[in-house]
Specification:
The chain has 332 residues and is of the alpha+beta class. It contains eleven helices and eleven strands. InterPro entries: EGF.
Amino acid sequence: IDTRYYLAVLQKFLQSNITTSINPTRRCASVDEVLNTTLVSLPRIQRLKSYHIPCQRDFNLQCFVDEFYMCLCTEEHHSNCFLLDHQSSFVCGDNVYCENGGTCLQDRPMCFYSILCLCSDCFFGDRCQFYAKGIGLTLDDLLRYEVRPNSTLNDQSLVVKLSATFVMIIFLIGLINGFLSYLVFRNRDSRKVGSGIYLRLSSIISILIVTMLIIKFWFVIYTYMNPLINRNILRVGCLVFEPLLRLFLNTSNWLNTCVAIERAISVLQGINFNKKRSKCIARWVCCLLPFIILGSMSYELIYRDLFDDHEERRVWCVLQYSQSIEKYTTII
């Protein structure tokens, strides 16, 4: 049997709301795994007589399947088997609900009661309406399904723990590097030309980047671990932290670009390079650059908002933008 089956939940009483999780321990093993080869090779009718053995031998076994039946292990460790149609399909006949190529599934062919979407890579949301990589990866995208809600940091996955370690190391290295760079370019002799002014401001920005990075990282971790946190706090993190981090990153990149441009001009002009004019231009650029970048990022404040994922019971910070905005950000 190539298809894998998982036991999601057993209802002893009818409930309108059910919370469960799927993990490897809930997989229904194949009959080949729970019976020896001698019993498996028997004709189907004779083999069924031995289906009580797996439940009595392994008290942790919840279910197993063969090519015709699915069997559930009861609390008394007996097998309760019923016919299972392996060829049945839950795919919607007409996929008008799911977006961006998501696979639509429904609980019954006609008059379905529930419907859900299986999203392809990079898409998420109850209808696969959100694209995680549309305008660059964020910490929210990287950690979205790695952080376990309602769990402490010690109970988180290895990926989260390693990420926390790397972020702390990056913060310490970045802080030391930025501070030493600032001390170097604090000297007036290092700011005789415009590139010194750019690099001094860049050292300050680099400290702000690593500071905002660690604030953003722990904010994401904390809010994902505590789904019931106040919505206003989530909105502040969504509308302030991520845009600020992008502002600092973009400013640092443009300052480094300005350094490269000025050095190229100084090489071309040689002894005719005007240091005084270079410093004047650098001061104007340093004053205007943050406002220019903020203007180019204005779409973030307009299209960024919170999204309630009822399937995952979480709140995501997402960007809902049109294709024209995507093209604009690609050009910028």
